[in-house]
Amino acid sequence: MHTFEVKEDFLLDGHPFKIMSGAIHYFRIRPQEWYHSLYNLKALGFNTVETYIPWNLHEQEEGKFDFTAQLDIQEFVRLAQKLGLFVILRPSPYICAEWEFGGMPAWLLNDRDMRIRSSDPLFIEKVANYYEVLFKEIGPLQIDQGGPVIMMQLENEYGSYGEDKDYLLALHDLMIKNQVKVPLFTSDGAWEEAQRAGALLEKDILSTGNFGSKAKQNFKQLKNFHQQHGKNWPLMCMEFWDGWFNRWNEEIVKRDPEELAEAVGEVLEIGSINLYMFHGGTNFGFMNGCSARGDKDLPQITSYDYDALLDEQGNPTEKFFSVQRKVHDLFPDIEQSEPLRKSVLEPKVADLKEKVSLFSIVESVSQHTPSKYPENMEKLNQHYGYLLYSTKIPSHPDEEFIRVIDASDRVHVFLNQTKIATQYREEIGEKIFCKPSKEQNQLDILVENMGRVNYGHKLLADTQRKGIRSGVMSDLHFICEWDQYSIDFSKLDHIDYKQAWIEGTPAFYRYELVVEKTGDTFIDLQKFGKGVVIVNGFNLGRFWNCGPTQSLYVPASILNTGINEIIVFETEGEWSSELAFEKQPKYKKM
């Protein structure tokens, strides 16, 4: 059993210890891939792995907790320990991480009186309920109990958000109440204003810095902050950004491997490091976050490759070898080894078996809720994905206009199953002109939640409630009597493909892929518009032909030997009779 302390240095069993850590998010890679990524971190010569813990996955419905399969944090940490790695956990309610709503569960938004990420008793009560269950899972993993966990984070970059010290104190007290014994830390920008707002000095909690370059300058700022407050703490960059995340319709961000290695070396010569990310992984399902730039929302892509030391698949990149060489130059006695590499399937093509329009089978793949006025997603107990609103409007002799009032994030408007408009958040509310010529006309509005903001001022805004928030107007009047269909992608077995496929409408396309043995692969979606892909019941995530990515990564663990079912839900009416599986990801030239 080991001991770990924060004094003038990090002390492991009483001896100085340089933390050389890399971030691997267990929830962004499949459990079958955990060993591969953790082994490669050890092969780099590093001694620690760091991970966030996403509240919104572990408590997807209030009071119902899940720590199984891909969410088995205990198994991930124990596996790291078997490989000789120590562990840093970041279990704060908010994680950012380019993750949906910064890791906070969307059901919090149903309480309009609650101020999230604050000392509001309503919010702290929800955190307390979560922590009571969470720390029963991760408490036994602490180093004083024979586990590998050496530190835990109090809050995440709070210094770039607020100054509510009562909130930080409340989190501290909850962690202590739940038997957290390892040292706590905060992580913020290295500059004085962020450190001052985010630190909890009165509880003697270590403050660390987050940056991606200029280590000497940033560590100097961090050390000055420590000294101003009478602290003689070790210096650590808790997030050294070795790459960056990517948004739809923007170029992929890249960083030179040799430049990165020199920058990492500069950090290691002064203090400790956590590479963010070592292996980025994938935003499976609907878990991508969203950036906020002024009033504009910029959703992030499904791939969380991050241009990290391991690519999305988990294989070493040039960055891995550049940093590995730098580590050897600085610490020649550290044990390093060859990294593991995963194989990929040979290219294959799956043929289309069946197709059907969403409008033809919507009741069998959704939860139906009628109401006088449209309700938002959260009120309908739907937190992610797509919601279809349907109503009838009477005939009109002349052209008239429809207005969708206050909705997020993307709406498709159909009149009698013909698309008449697509609007994004910045356009929603503008007039949509149409001619309802039938005696009774079907008005359908498909709303997509493209991902909640994960960082900044919009974490408080009503814009994070998705779907239609206010209503829909025909000319000057709000339309009443709506049917709402919360699309449930766990109900796809109920699809009757004998029903009609209607050209130009959102539809389901079913393919079959036969493989003799499993392996990683990439689905080429260049011929498709926008939507999601489900493989053997597992939601891989979103695709969109605006780029920069035009494929989805399929881990081998999702495939079966023999027949595999692939269902593409596509919303733009762009599809193909064949679905190609390739050895490499596809990118759009931006």
Describe the structure in your own words.
Helices cover 19% and strands 32% of the residues. It is of the alpha+beta class. The radius of gyration is 25 Å and the shape is globular. The N and C termini lie far apart (53 Å).
What key phrases describe this protein's structure?
590 residues, alpha+beta, TIM Barrel, Jelly Rolls, 10 helices, 31 strands, 32% strand
| CATH H-level superfamily title of the largest domain | Glycosidases
Radius of gyration, whole Å: 25 Å
Distance between the termini: 53 Å
- Major β-sheet profile: 8 strands, parallel, barrel
CATH C-level of the largest domain: Alpha Beta
Named CATH architecture of the largest domain: Alpha-Beta Barrel
Based on Cα principal axes, name the global outline: globular
Overall average pLDDT: 97
Strand order of the largest sheet: 4-5-6-7-8-9-10-11
What is the share of helical residues? 10-25%
In total, how many beta strands?
31
The CATH topology label of the largest domain is TIM Barrel
Strand content: 25-35%
Unreliable spans are none
Total tally of structural domains: 3
Secondary structure class reads alpha+beta
Number of helices: 10
